[in-house]
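Before our next group meeting I need something from you. Please put the record directly below this note.
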Amino acid sequence: MATEGDVTNLSFHDDFFDGVVCLNTLEHLPSLEKAISEISRTCRSGGIVLFDIPSSSILDFSYFFGYYGKSGLISALKGLSEKKVMFEWESNDDSHTRRKVNTYRYKFAFIDDLLKSHGFQIVEKRGVHISTMLIPEKIQANTASPTLSKINNNLIKVDNFLNKFSILKNRALYMLYACKKI
């Protein structure tokens, strides 16, 4: 079933879903707490929730300064001490109209605590360091090019290696979470 709605105010009854997948979404909500609360309310006990969230702890000057400009750099510096930072940038929407986009980045310890307080057990966390950041998704999906596939597979191996070390895993650009509703 596909539907459109507001993840901070879902129209579904309690314990409706067996699982929830929420990718590239939560970082654009001003109230992550409301979204997690609604996901918890609508997810059955034993249900699985998968989502990704960007880190405020990563200090990658080239990424922020080059792509997001001054506001990205300022948010990167704030992220060293704050649990949640927001920055505004511009992007073209589907109709090629330029519009402002707000993105929130978080400390992973804050996310872990938020999930536990809403009845979730973290089953697995996987840091995304470079693989999806260096090669755009459309190119990653292009299996017709052996060279691009080989480069992407090697970048995934680097991510897998970095995830073996807790300190490096927690400095990833994004974290993928797999949680179970208890």
Observations:
- Strands lie at 17-22, 43-54, 84-92, 98-106, 120-128, 174-181.
